[in-house]
Amino acid sequence: MPPPSHPLSARVTDQQIQALLTRFGCPTPMHVLRMRFLGAIASPRMEVSPIQLVTKAWGGELPEFASEDEAEELFQALLGGWWNRLSEYQNSRSSFRLPRSEVKPTRHALLDLAQTRSQELTGFVDGLFGDDEEMDMPEKAHEALTTLAEIHSMFAGALALLGNESVPAPASELTALLRNFQKMTITADEEINRIIQSCKRARAQHIENLTFVNARRFTAGPEMDDEDEVEWIEEEASDGDPVLTYSPLNQTLTRNGVTVEVHIYKGRGSDWILELVDAAKNSHVWDDQFETDQQAFDEALRALDEESLEFMEPTPDRKVN
Fold first, then answer.
1. Where are the domains of the chain?
2. CA 266 – CA 178 distance, rounded (Å)
3. ∠ CA 270-273-279 to the nearest 5 degrees?
4. Are 275 and 283 within 8 A, CB to CB?
5. For the whole model, what pTM was predicted?
6. Is it the case that residue 125 has pLDDT exceeding 90?
7. φ, ψ for residue 35 (rounded to 5)?
8. What is the mean pLDDT of residues 93-108?
9. Exposed/middle/buried for 85, CB within 10 Å: 0-12, 13-18, 19+?
């Protein structure tokens, strides 16, 4: 039986993509290329060339291929597979989430996380704007982009701060910073999805029926002074409204001999998010969101009643962002 004509198309995995990028010597990290693709897919620009994005990923010239089959393999994986899979996030029922992994509250780990998130947000904007420095985009997308720019500045600023070894970083502040990074990631997810949906609606409607706002791409974050503290990060939108709303049900709770901090919050236009912080300062963030803060609190009680051992482990495996 002959092999399938497109072996790495619809079912391509991130592991296969990474293997191909490594094999063909791509200088662009996979997490950056993923976000460039997603930004280009979301872009209100009428002409977007996936091939140009692939060429740009290799510094402007495609890699040398030993055969036509190699070229076909790469393009089918990146465009027939990865691009199409990322395009599915235009469906309002399929929300995009930045990749998560367990991160320890250490200076080196937070430095790597801040760098990755900063690069991911820059990559998304690079794909969104293409070669343009500014463009007109729907008002809601512009609002979301403004919030993303602020989150990017926070990550970039923290990156500069954590990279400065002369600035002290006590363990308690690093733990708090990790929690802030987790919340900023959740907010970034929401704003990225707002941009995707807003631009999708704009492409489907007549331009004259929409309000467009001129937007500029963001680049580097702010310079940080040596005396700035790690705990400087606070999430606030440019209009002065908090990016996150906190529930009055937040509290320190002891149940079945286990004490946790209950944190329930939501971003603008999102449902409630549940986070429990155990005695070892491990953060447990639920993937599922809740329509009301009371539902989130009830889930916290259920988890402490039925899964209390998980919150006593030093390195729990439960959904850690």
1. 14-85, 245-321
2. 18
3. 160
4. yes
5. 0.72
6. yes
7. -75, -30
8. 87
9. middle
